[in-house]
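FORM 7B: Structural annotation worksheet

SECTION A. Query
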Amino acid sequence: MKTELVQRFVWGVPVYRQRFSLVASRPATERLIAWIIISKFGDHLPFYRQAGIFERQGLHLDRGTLGNWTGRACFHLMPVMPALC
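SECTION B. Predicted structure
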């Protein structure tokens, strides 16, 4: 897992937070991974269709990459599962 420190300014005050990437070679944000998971399990959109959507937008993402990101995110969400059920 790759981590980096990101500085933002909120009302003129610097705010630091640690940004992480599940895959070091491709910096996926939390928002992108959440969109992939919601599309897969909520909207029943398979990875090959999601890859086609990204391809039309000019971003080449392999189905294996999407599956890897989903698997890693679900692994990190396992401690939260008992509270949801």
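SECTION C. Observations
The two ends are 28 Å apart (CA to CA). The helical segments are 30-42, 47-56, 63-77, 81-84.

SECTION D. Sign-off
Analyst initials: ____
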